[in-house]
Write a structure and sequence with these properties.
Distance between the termini: 62 Å
Number of domains: 4
Largest sheet: 8 strands, antiparallel
Strand order of the largest sheet: 3-4-5-6-7-8-9-10
Structural class: alpha+beta
Amino acid sequence: MMRMNQPYIIAGLAALGLMTGSTLQAAPPTAKEALQLEPTQTSIDYDQPTEAEADECSIEVIKNGQGKGWVVKSKNHLDLRRFMDTNDDNVVDLWCYYRDGLEIYRDVDTDYDGDVDQFRWLTTAGSRWGIDQEGDGKLDTWKTISPEEVSEEAVSAMATRDWNRFQRLLLSKDELQKLGLGKSRLTQVEKKISEAASVWKEIASGDDNPLSEKSRWVRFEAVRPGVIPAGTDDLQKDLQVYENVVALVETDGAFQMLQLGTLVRIGDAWRALDVPRPYAATEGQIASSEGLFFNVNPEMQGSNPGIPPGNASEEEIQGLLSKLQELDQKADQLPQKEYHKDRADLLKELVSLFDDKEVKTPWIQRLAETLSVAAQTNIYPEGVDRLSSLSDELEKANYDDNIRAYVQYRYLMADYQSSIQQENADFGKIQSVWLERLESFVKDYPGSEDTAEALLQLAGARELMGQEAEAKKWYQVAMKDFSSTIPGKKAAGAMRRLDSPGKSIEVAGTDIKSGQKFALSSSSLRGRVVLVDYWASWCGPCKDSFADLKEMYGKYGGKFVVIGVNLDNSKDEAAKVIQEYGLRWPNLWESGGLESRFATEMGILTLPTKILLDGNGRVVARGLHITQVEDEVKKLLQPRR
């Protein structure tokens, strides 16, 4: 199946009822005709079957909670397109495009006037949400865009010399007023914004712009974002900021760095304050923590605060980056131990290029991640000792707690996973040491981002050991101290699950096979015993239980209902298992796997997880083994005396 990246206008599709303003009462199109329609925005990497493949595609009429319309499916029954009427006026107002079974982009007519006015990138395509304010079919502003996507858009704008594209990323004067800056800072930022057009003309449109249409965004580089609290320099409210953002760019095999400077968050979107500039090693630090808002007294840094003493030249940096890129491109061709060792060596060399700790930090993180992943899978066991040494080095050099915690936690995980894979491993002893280390970690680094995950690991392990009170203690700490993080939210879900007996719970989503909306609270389930079964294609015990569930499903007729909740990362993998095992009950799915909404809402940490509800929709048991399910179902179905 080939991919299509550039849209073109398809004449005559209005007659098919798919173009903007077209009626659903027209004759149904063929799948091949429907596949001709393309997104309004460029560079959308969506599935586009070849002509031969299109002949094997099908088109179906659908009606669900989203509205009514048509869905185009591949021969493997994966969604390729959806064209929907969401307000029941028989006119298409939603055009959805898919890749590998996931919706990755949609055009939307929100005011039902026949013209697309919103453009959304979804799931694996990112989080961008663009708005057409002028009604001319063009993207005018970003309602939602992440810092990473801002850097990617900025690279594209520089590469194509497109001022309008960059201007959409630039903080507007109206948005500037909403930031609540103090007078002096307001004047400073206002000056940058007002000069942006002339600076763009000088840098981006001039001969000194090193980017071309062949340039490709590779990566976003920055130290973690910071929050400037209200009251600082007369700031009226908290402000979230990324300083000294750098984008890594590749052009014809050569790597360059583009400085984006400061990004600020306003609502769900991030905005640039200055025009991107090609990086020169003599001009400043790479992704340091200083900038427009985070400034250190220059007298504390020596005569040249921009460059930490001993920094390598740009040529040395680019040389190592090129080697790293070449190594990654050959990853599948090399012995995995050799690949991970060489990658770690290159990253360590990159770390050594700089003296400034803030500049070193992102490279140290990549080094630790490489070593930890390789050691946990036992591909490169030596990674455990290298992580231990790295952790000791950071402590001796008095690095801050955040990077020390980052490395230490990855060392702990690598050592634990590597240990349990050893021949004749003493699992009881290894588990005991692991839990002791986790408790020490959360005590030593109470504010670290990794502490949230460590708390979840602690609680989950105690729950599996049957120590529910101890598990709840750690879940509650994660909920309280890290409420806005995924582990914190998952801990809240775990508490909800543990406290669920006797209570109603809600599980709602879309069935993989039918595309129909489903909710556990539906009145159609009242009076029926319901089993909510969390599973995944990679979980052997999950699939082993399907035969018993199918038997019970048939034996008890409509009195017993199974609702599957799949936690695969790939919808396609889930669909294959559903077909292979002939599962007849609804199976809900959302992207994210074990980090999805479904897993988070109920704190699902291990699979399979089975929750049984009575005819009144109240939980009677959670954490059932398949061998226990039928006995519990029989009890609930027995007539009351």
